[in-house]
Amino acid sequence: MNRTIRYATAALCFGFSALIPAATFANDCAQRCYAQENSCRRATKDSPSCGSELTRCLQSCRAKR
After folding, report:
1. How many C-beta neighbours within 10 Å does residue 61 have?
2. Mean pLDDT of 10-26
């Protein structure tokens, strides 16, 4: 029983460690998208096109995962 629990715990830890880099990349990518949106809104005086650019950027982050 103890051996099974140890293997299950090790597998679970390995699985979570594999997800961390993907989550970190997604967060970094989303932060870049929001920074670009803020720059766009300042440069264009709050143009509606900035929102669509944000959506495309976030979708590309999602596709790269």
Report:
1. 18
2. 56
